[in-house]
Amino acid sequence: MPGGAGENDEYMSVDPRLVAQLSADTASLNWQLRRFGENLAVLQHQLAGAPVVSAAAPPMYRPPAPTHPPVPMAPPMASAPRVAPPPAGAPPRTGPPGPGRMPAPARSPLPTPTPWWQREGAVSKVLAAAGGVVTLIGVVMMLVLAAQSGFFGPVPRVVGGAVLSFVLVAAGIRVHARPGGRYGAIALATTGFAGLYFDIMAVSVVYEWIPVPLALAVALVVAGAGVALAAHWDVQALAVALIGAIAILGAVVTDGVTLTLVAFLLVVQLAPFPAQWYRRWRSLSVVRTVPVVLALIAVVVSTGGYPDADAWWALGAAAAVALLGLASAVTLTARDPEDVGSSVACALAAVPILAVGTAFPPLGGAVIALVTAVVLFTVVAFATRIPGALQTVVAGVATVALLEVCLFVGGGSLSAVLLLGNAAVFLELARQVRSRLVLGSGLVFLAAGGLAYAVTVPPEALVESREAIDVLGAGAVAASVALAISAFLAVRGARSLGLVGDDSVGVLYAVAGGAALYGATATAVTIGTSVSPTSTGFVAGHCAATILWMLTATGSIVFGLHTPAHRRTAIGAGLVLAGAALVKLFFFDLATLDGMFRVAAFLVAGLLLLFAAAHFGRRMSTPGDSGSPPGSAA
């Protein structure tokens, strides 16, 4: 039929892909309109001030792929016309997105960073700090520099400074009660209390109207009031700023770092303690301790020494600073065991008492250090409530004080003997009481004693006869014995406390054995040169040392053969020592020894090696030991 053929041709001219594209575009447009309506409703609720519960966004609609019945291929002339590309220079086509594609949401621009001067409190902090510093400098100038230049009179200067300071404190309290007045109030109060403190210092130091002890009592009240206000406001920065201002500008009022300044800074160390206890400001311990410690060290360095009266005043101040730091640390850490700042402040407070002994004769310095060590060790032993960090600090300071005793009393070989003797006592005590803290003190003494021993018995004294005759003496023998004992006690104590395992203890015993052999060689050479202060005595001493080395090696091997529990360690150490003795015999003794001493060294060493070999072979051939290879544990 003609009409049917025309309709079929018209149907064949429709592109199914275009139909699918239009269907997808319609679905996408429907989803966008729906989403736009929801967002508009949310915006209306927000503008009306009503709370909005934002619902979850509906899932993106993806239209199903259209299905079409198979369409017969149209003849080439009946195909749908293709859309021609846009002409050159035409604007890009902005049609709807393709099927299943949604436009990417527009990213909101990043917020512009606020300038620093617009941030909350930034300008207030800067202006308040600058104003406080400038005002305090002006107060100090009025009290000191104006007095030197003759401006005004003493009474107007003092009264004016006091009135200005009171006004600043009152203004700070008033400003703090207003919104946004925090930083200005801190600066005003700090300036006011510091000005009052300087006014009191000037009254006693510059004008000498009242004695220093009375001025210290009044200064304690002023500083305590300032820190109490900081605690009331719960503003640690006020206390820190007050301490810093007094520490920095106080030397201007006292005309340098003097004992009077130390006394006023000692008041500053004491005054903040109640507030720190109340507010648990951990860092305040260090802040209030550092100024007086630095000032006191400067005084100790500049003092003329004994019998200068300043030395005694410095000693009293150092003792007060140390006791105050110790008492504060014990009290604060008993309440707050995590307060590490108090432990650090305790260590800092002990520095002046450790340094002030240099201003006295050696015996006086030794007494000061000994009393310090006894007090601190007593605290460690009987104060059971202090935490481990403070115990470590106190024990460390006590150890340093005891080291000072050895250095003050001793000299040369005596220092080495005292240090190594203390090391032996502490190391054995650590094993008995099973305390790592005591072991640490013993190791410190061992290290210091080892350095002193290296100076007392240098390697050159064991190589050159003239050096040995000049340097070695009875002190070298005592120090050598103490070194050997301390070295083995250190390994034994570390092993008993579980600090080293069985795998590494052999290496430590080998190191201790090396130290003992060095000491044994020094002892033999010292005895030889003491009997005959000539090269003959030196040679005889080295001959005895070589025989002693080989004898020790043989004894270690025999001990290992008869002790299965220590067989591997003992036999290994013996073989290493025998090898070292042979190296010494062929590379040193052969060139240094002469005459019968050389013959005796070779004969005795050879006989000992033969004995060790025979005994070793016999024990290994015994039925009970044949299954254990040499150097292995049974």
From TrEMBL:
Domain of life: Bacteria
Region called Disordered, residue ranges: 64-111
TM helices/strands, residue ranges: 126-148, 154-173, 185-207, 213-231, 238-266, 286-306, 313-334, 340-360, 392-425, 437-456, 468-494, 506-527, 539-559, 571-590, 596-616
UniProt feature, compositional bias: Pro residues: 64-75, 83-111
Organism: Rhodococcus triatomae
Keyword annotations from UniProtKB, A to Z: Membrane, Transmembrane, Transmembrane helix
Coiled-coil region(s): none
Family annotation (Pfam families): DUF2339
Protein's name according to its UniProt entry: Predicted membrane protein
InterPro entries tied to this protein: DUF2339_TM
